[in-house]
């Protein structure tokens, strides 16, 4: 039984609540021998996993190392497979070969399985590999974004991930982005994300907004089209492209009549700062990153809870 599965009401239990429930079960449990706990008890296995994870997660670079492990298609394929069942190295070799990936067993062990073990995503028993509860939970989140390993650079400092998450709150100017990542690398990071279709910027013309002036329009004469265009300009301004669509005019005619309105001092121009925002693909990735961080933080908190509880018991 997976102790992290939803309860009978279908509700997902967070680790903190779950651990309290499991502690109560442990106190009422009467195993015939200590080996029964070690070999069969899911509660023991979960707590042991959390104790091991605590040591790894205390590393200040843990999240960066974890993400770099995950940003590899072959590792993700393996993680997904062992989240569904136990595999030996030879079985994984066959599984990967059937999907067009030929690797020696030594390469599988050193390049792919070892990193998964080191960050606590996988475990090994009797020459078989399986996903830990932690690894299984992250796998479920990653399934919704299959391109995770493709769009993010491997072996990185994870500045891209940091910026993508920051942009989930809304578009930012370059100056605001420099507060998230170093000004020395901001341009390079933005270029990478734009090439991966994760961020976008408005067309150049969309930085120019047209506003109504305070001049009384009743003192001026309008053509029918000029009036239509003038009345379509909202109080907070609008770009020519959006105004064209709103008024139902071509861009050429829109600019023609805007020049006329500007000449009558009824309209003025204001340039807005260039901003960078997430594409729909970028928003999906940002949500995935948020989900990963949520599980990581919850697991870290629970691992500390288990550690302190065991320390107290041994005192």
Plain-language structure description:
The strands form three sheets. The chain has a three-stranded antiparallel sheet. Strands 6-5-7 form a three-stranded antiparallel sheet. The chain has a two-stranded antiparallel ribbon with strand order 1-2. Residues 1-13 have low confidence and may be disordered. A hairpin with a 2-residue loop joins strand 1 (122-125) and strand 2 (128-131). The protein is mainly alpha-helical and 315 residues long. The chain has helices at 15-28, 34-40, 42-57, 62-70, 73-82, 89-97, 105-118, 133-142, 148-151, 159-167, 174-177, 183-195, 224-231, 240-247, 251-263, 280-314, and strands spanning 122-125, 128-131, 172-173, 199-200, 208-212, 238-239, 267-271, 275-278.
Secondary structure elements and pairings:
Elements: H1 15-28, H2 34-40, H3 42-57, H4 62-70, H5 73-82, H6 89-97, H7 105-118, E1 122-125, E2 128-131, H8 133-142, H9 148-151, H10 159-167, E3 172-173, H11 174-177, H12 183-195, E4 199-200, E5 208-212, H13 224-231, E6 238-239, H14 240-247, H15 251-263, E7 267-271, E8 275-278, H16 280-314
Helix pairs in contact: 2-3, 3-16, 8-16, 10-16, 13-15, 14-15
- What is the CA-atom radius of gyration, in angstroms? 28 Å
Count of domains:
2
CATH third-tier fold name of the largest domain: Arc Repressor Mutant, subunit A
Q: How many helices in DSSP terms?
A: 16
Q: Please state the structural category.
A: mainly alpha
- Overall pLDDT score: 86
Largest sheet entry: 3 strands, antiparallel
Strand arrangement, major sheet: 3-8-4
């Amino acid at each position: 039984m997976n102790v992290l599965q939803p309860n009978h009401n279908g509700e997902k239990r967070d680790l903190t609540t779950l651990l309290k429930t499991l502690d109560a079960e442990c106190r009422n449990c009467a195993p015939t021998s200590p080996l029964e706990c070690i070999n069969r008890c899911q509660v023991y296995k979960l707590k042991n996993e959390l104790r091991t994870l605590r040591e790894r997660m205390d590393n200040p670079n843990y999240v960066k190392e974890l993400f770099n492990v995950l940003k590899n298609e072959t590792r993700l394929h393996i993680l997904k497979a062992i989240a569904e069942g136990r595999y030996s190295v030879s079985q994984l070799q066959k599984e990967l070969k059937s999907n067009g990936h030929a690797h020696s067993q030594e390469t599988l062990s050193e390049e792919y399985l070892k990193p998964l073990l080191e960050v606590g995503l996988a475990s090994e028993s009797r020459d078989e590999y399986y996903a830990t509860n932690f690894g299984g939970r992250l796998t479920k989140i990653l399934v919704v974004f299959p391109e995770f390993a493709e769009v993010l650079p491997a072996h990185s400092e994870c500045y891209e991930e940091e910026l993508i998450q920051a942009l989930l709150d809304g578009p930012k100017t370059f100056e605001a982005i420099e507060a998230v990542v170093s000004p020395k690398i901001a341009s390079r990071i933005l270029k990478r994300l734009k090439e991966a279709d994760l961020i976008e910027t408005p067309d150049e013309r969309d930085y120019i907004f047209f506003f109504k002036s305070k001049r009384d329009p009743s003192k001026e004469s309008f053509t029918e089209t000029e009036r239509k265009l003038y009345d379509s300009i909202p109080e907070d301004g609008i770009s020519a492209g959006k105004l064209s669509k709103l008024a139902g005019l071509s861009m050429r005619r829109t600019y023609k009549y805007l020049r006329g309105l500007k000449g009558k001092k009824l309209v003025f121009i204001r340039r807005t700062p260039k901003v960078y925002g997430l594409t729909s693909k970028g928003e999906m990735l940002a949500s995935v990153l948020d989900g990963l961080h949520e599980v990581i933080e919850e697991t870290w908190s629970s691992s500390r809870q288990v550690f302190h509880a065991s320390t107290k018991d041994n005192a």
